[in-house]
Amino acid sequence: MTPEARRRARLPLRLRRRPVPWERQRPTWREARPAVIEGALKRALARPAGNWFVLGAARGIGARRAFGRTVAGVEVVAWRAADGRLVAGPGACPHLGAPLARGAVHCGTLRCRWHGLALDGAPFAGWEPFPAYDDGVLAWVRLDGIGGEAPLPRPVVPSRPALSGAVTAVHTAVGRCEPEDVVANRLDPWHGAWFHPYSFVDLRVVGAPPESGAEGPDAFVVDVSFKVAGRAVVPVTAHFTAPGPRTVVMRIADGEGRGSVVETHATPLGPDDRGRPRTAVIEAVVATSDRRGFALARAAAPLLRPLVRAASGRLWRDDLAYAERRRQLRSSGRQPG
After folding, report:
1. Residue 198 CB coordination number (10 Å)
2. 124 C-beta neighbours (distance < 10 Å), count
3. How far apart are CA 67 and CA 129, in angstroms?
4. What is the pLDDT of residues 247-278, one digit of tens each?
5. Cβ atoms 65, 78 nearer than 8 A
6. Do residues 141 and 135 lie in contact, with contact meaning Cβ atoms separated by under 8 Å?
7. Are 141 and 88 in contact (CB under 8 A)?
């Protein structure tokens, strides 16, 4: 191995030798054909999810307090049973409809604050639990009444690096759009360096799925550099795929952090007070590295998680504006393409 190759193996950072200003970078609008994006979106929407929806971060549902979320208009409460198992069910108390998410959890039992009705996760007094699943990063609930699909025993969880050797973080944001608008945003990798110049540079889509259902890999392959500071960047090759109708996965295929994934899950919430649809974007980062120094990152995971969530939050402030705009155009019949 040459000295240069050894140096590159030790250091993931590169210096951009001839950085191109934002306004002089190569336009991508000709390549970002609406038919390609819409074709990938339609195929994603047709894939089965088995009526499973992401509730939130698994570590966000603890043993001391209940967690509440409305999914497609269905009020859901979740908590931990005495053995740590994830429990989920209707969020309204079967007695007089009190919000169970405001109840108290003690030794795995959820007790309603209005009149003290106690639930341990088993059917009781007309309350029936929903199927729930904890994949180690995210908490899921199965709602057969609204999913409209044949139920699956478990959600379709994307392949991830081993959690024992990874750093994980989950960020949640809410926008006035529908899940398909979020998925469409993630299936347009061409916008990255234009819309997010603070994070991405030198982006080039080197592989894209076909416009129609022709044979071939249904993935976007992207060469891109993550900005660190100044001219310092980390170049990688990433694959974007949509394993389900509400999920898009970015996987690092080559470069620093190979094998790391960013999962974007879109969970419909229900309309706001003006009747506009609302969707929760629940993004899970599962980062790994074969560098010896990554053990320090794992040890510092509690300190790193807020930084990762902040970076995701900045991106999604922009991307939710993109998704909301798409929904406005679509709902008014003005969407191009």
Report:
1. 10
2. 14
3. 14
4. 999 999 999 999 999 999 999 999 999 999 99
5. no
6. no
7. yes
User: Which of 226, 187, 191 is CA-nearest to residue 208?
Assistant: 187
- Give the torsion sign (CA, 319, 322, 324, 330): negative
Q: Which amino acid is at 168?
A: T
Rg, C-alpha atoms of the chain = 22
Question: What is the SS3 assignment for the chain?
Answer: CCHHHHHHHHCCCEECCCCCCHHHCCCCCCCCCHHHHHHHHHHHHCCCCCCEEEEEEHHHCCCCECEEEEECCEEEEEEECCCCCEEEEECECCCCCCEHHHCEEECCEEECCCCCCEECCCCECCECCECEEECCCEEEEECHHHHCCCCCCCCCCCCCCCHHHCEEEEEEEEECCCHHHHHHHHCCHHHHHHHCCCCEEEEEEEECCCCCCCCCCCCEEEEEEEEEECCEEEEEEEEEEEEECCEEEEEEEEECCCCCEEEEEEEEEEECCCCCEEEEEEEEEEECCCCCCHHHHHHCHHHHHHHHHHHHHHHHHHHHHHHHHHHHHHHCCCCCC
Can you say how many angstroms the Cα of residue 168 is from the centroid of all Cα atoms in its chain? Answer: 12
CA atoms within 13 A on the CB side of 210: 6
In the chain, the N- to C-terminal Cα span, in Å, equals: 50
Distance from C-alpha of 40 to C-alpha of 45, rounded to nearest angstrom:
9
163-214 tens-digit pLDDT: 999 999 999 999 999 999 999 999 999 999 999 999 999 999 999 998 865 5
Q: What angle do CA 302, 267, 260 make, to 5 degrees?
A: 45
